[in-house]
Design goal:
By secondary structure, the protein is of the alpha/beta class. The protein contains twelve helices and ten strands. The strands form two sheets. A five-stranded mixed β-sheet has the order 3-2-1-4-5, sandwiched between helices. A five-stranded mixed β-sheet has the order 8-7-6-9-10, sandwiched between helices. The protein starts with a strand and ends in a 31-residue tail after the last helix. Bound molecules: 5'-O-[(R)-(carboxyoxy)(hydroxy)phosphoryl]adenosine and zinc ion. The site of 5'-O-[(R)-(carboxyoxy)(hydroxy)phosphoryl]adenosine has 20 residues, from helix 6 and helix 7.
Amino acid sequence: MGLILGIESSCDETAAALVTADRRILASRIAGQEAAHAPYGGVVPEIAARAHVEILPDLIEAALAEAGVQLAEVDAVAATAGPGLIGGVMVGLVTAKGLALAAGKPLVAVNHLEGHALSPMLSAPELAFPYLLLLVSGGHCQLLSVEALGRYRRLATTIDDAAGEAFDKTAKLLGLGFPGGPAVERAAADGDPGAVPLPRPLVGSAEPHFSFAGLKSAVLRARESGRYAAEDIAASFQQAVVDCLVDRTARALGAAPEATALVVAGGVAANRAVRAALTDLAARRGLPFVAPPLWLCTDNAAMIAWAGALRFEAGLVDPLDTPARARWPLDPAAERVRGAGVKA
Ligand code: KG4
Ligand code: ZN
């Protein structure tokens, strides 16, 4: 059974993991950089890249030690090769190339989004292609038909901001700190989701896409009006996002009748209100609902090692001159939508 070392460094998480092709996670180490970015209220690319350089070598050693394996025993080295903040992606990819070269192992260049897309399989062995995936993170908000390893049909994307980005901006507006998603979720627990009238952009629309920019502006106006408690704004905002995600996902299920399951992945999939609403939607459609455990939703290297394991087993390895890419769509045939996928 293939044993893969995976490396992730595309945003503000430095991570290394060892995963086997039969889904055993032997080690998964994640080092966050929240403290370094917190003063700026968002991820600073140069700071992130420097932090990856400083953290990654020790993190890989710790992961190998935890798994009880030597580099010589792994079958391939997988790393995120994009999309993401290019400096960080380069740090992880170059490290993987060096290790692969030194140990005489193949390199597997993994698309970060493919890592998220396949991550639900790690905890749900029964999950089979094709499935409908809602991929919601800080940089992306997409609905994909996951048809096979390497074959993804994009059914919808955001025409402006990603859902996670809206969570992060809302947290900043409300002074809840960084990272924003979990902070908004905590505040929302003490608020009334019906307290603040907020828009649900594109809900009910015939076009398949998402939009969150108008919601973000409405949150700003609600905040500036001084009429609402931060908890009520947080709860109302979260409810609006949930309503948008559910409406758009329901529409996509109609466009993908072949789907055997409804699956959610990406950082926003860690949100309990989002998970609960999607669980209901799947039940109404008679489909199984699959969501990775919370730690596998946000960025990690186990999902990169797992995607690497599937690619390695399929003979899909990459040359050592494989470039790092800031942009790398999962479905190259999908039309480019206004402003989509731009990570702040
Ligand atoms: O997948 P991820 O770790 O990184 C990207 O590839 O973007 O997703 C991070 C995003 C951030 O925007 C963060 O605020 C959001 O996921 N997030 C959440 C929660 N946990 C993380 N959003 C809402 N509720 C959460 N509990
Ligand atoms: Zn991610």
